[in-house]
């Protein structure tokens, strides 16, 4: 099966460097051709794919009107990698936050949201600054004399993932959509710098009820009201860029359970990723046998590639560092259509979710870029 390629389009990793370029930060390039500004905010709506916004434009008229382009998010199309793309200005092949779960050589498989061993939940002695050692976009802004502020859920303020990809920014914790809007506008009024704001609940409802479900649509309407409030209150000279970290699909009954499929387990020493994209770490010398088995069992339901093939197809971005390379599976399997690769024993909570993301389909890869400027 021919592998899809990811190239030739604006990337989520381009957003913050483009914004910082409009603020005069040296070394940053405005590849997205954003308007010059005296201060800017990037608002990330977790889980809002471009296809979902297109299909539900009537429920989000402000966002639909402001949308000016679509970006690709790269592989894996999941929150950890997306937040790292925003936080470093780089694709996954360089920042190395290789998904919801991924192997850190010599340490085990890391659940990057919980910062625990996966599966099992045991502690791992991993400093976030070691897992992601590259300068963040917030540190780059601060070094250039541009104040950088993160407006996000208060419970994430001291999380390891925040330390890994958002260090260097002043963290202002919020509790609901109301103070997210109020704190973002206060920051834009009081500071001529860079503000990053984050809303997570659309993604949460998409996982639980499915993208496009009544609950998801109602939340989208509230998100649109949030954006409208920010646009209405945007001070003169300020820029608002609204993006997302990935889209989402609803799984159908066409799924497979790794934990109940011996053919998929043979030669596999560890498994990472999530139900839509799997990093398959093989026993020494077993890669070709594992590749053949996964291709045979999954068939047309997934793209299955050696790591080198995935890199050549641009899945991990234009460059892949030697530090990061081993974090991606010797074999990578990316689901097509509505297929999912579950682990009902090892990952019961994740396997029960209706909405999923992580793979290479347009529904997951493409996100909107909406712009407002005064």
TrEMBL record:
<dbReference type="InterPro" id="IPR002591">
    <property type="entry name" value="Phosphodiest/P_Trfase"/>
</dbReference>
<dbReference type="InterPro" id="IPR017850">
    <property type="entry name" value="Alkaline_phosphatase_core_sf"/>
</dbReference>
<dbReference type="Pfam" id="PF01663">
    <property type="entry name" value="Phosphodiest"/>
</dbReference>
<protein>
    <submittedName>
        <fullName>Alkaline phosphatase family protein</fullName>
    </submittedName>
</protein>
């Amino acid at each position: 099966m021919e592998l899809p390629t990811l190239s030739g389009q604006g990337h989520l990793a381009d957003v913050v460097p483009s914004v910082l370029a409009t603020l005069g930060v040296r070394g940053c390039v405005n590849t997205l051709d954003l308007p010059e500004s005296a201060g800017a905010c990037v608002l990330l709506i977790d889980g809002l794919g471009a296809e979902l916004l297109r299909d539900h434009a009537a429920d989000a008229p402000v966002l639909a009107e402001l949308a000016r382009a679509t970006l690709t998010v790269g592989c894996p199309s999941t929150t950890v990698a997306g937040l790292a793309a925003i936080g470093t200005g780089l694709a996954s092949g360089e920042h190395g936050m290789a998904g919801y779960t991924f192997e850190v050589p010599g340490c085990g498989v890391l659940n990057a949201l919980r910062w625990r061993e996966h599966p099992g939940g045991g502690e791992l002695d991993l400093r976030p600054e070691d897992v992601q050692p590259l300068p963040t976009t917030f540190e780059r802004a601060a070094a250039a004399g541009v104040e950088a502020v993160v407006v996000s859920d208060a419970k994430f303020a001291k999380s390891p993932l925040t330390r890994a990809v958002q260090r260097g920014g002043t963290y202002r914790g919020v509790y609901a959509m109301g103070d997210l809007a109020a704190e973002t506008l206060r920051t834009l009024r009081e500071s001529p710098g860079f503000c990053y704001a984050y809303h997570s609940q659309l993604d949460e409802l998409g996982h639980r009820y499915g993208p496009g479900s009544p609950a998801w649509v109602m939340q989208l309407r509230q998100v649109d009201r949030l954006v409208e409030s920010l646009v209405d209150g945007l001070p003169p000279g300020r820029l608002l860029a609204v993006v997302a970290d990935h889209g989402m699909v609803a799984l159908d009954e066409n799924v497979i359970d790794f934990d109940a499929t011996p053919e998929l387990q043979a030669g596999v020493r560890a498994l990472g990723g999530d139900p839509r994209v799997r990093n398959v770490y093989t026993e020494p010398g077993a890669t070709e046998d594992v590749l053949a088995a996964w291709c045979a069992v999954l068939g047309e339901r997934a793209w299955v590639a050696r790591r080198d093939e995935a890199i050549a197809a641009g899945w991990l971005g234009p460059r892949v560092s030697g530090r990061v390379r081993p974090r991606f599976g010797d074999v990578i399997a990316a689901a097509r259509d509505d297929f999912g690769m579950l682990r009902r024993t090892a990952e019961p909570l994740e396997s029960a979710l209706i909405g999923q993301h992580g793979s290479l389909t347009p529904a997951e890869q493409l996100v909107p870029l909406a712009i407002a400027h005064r």
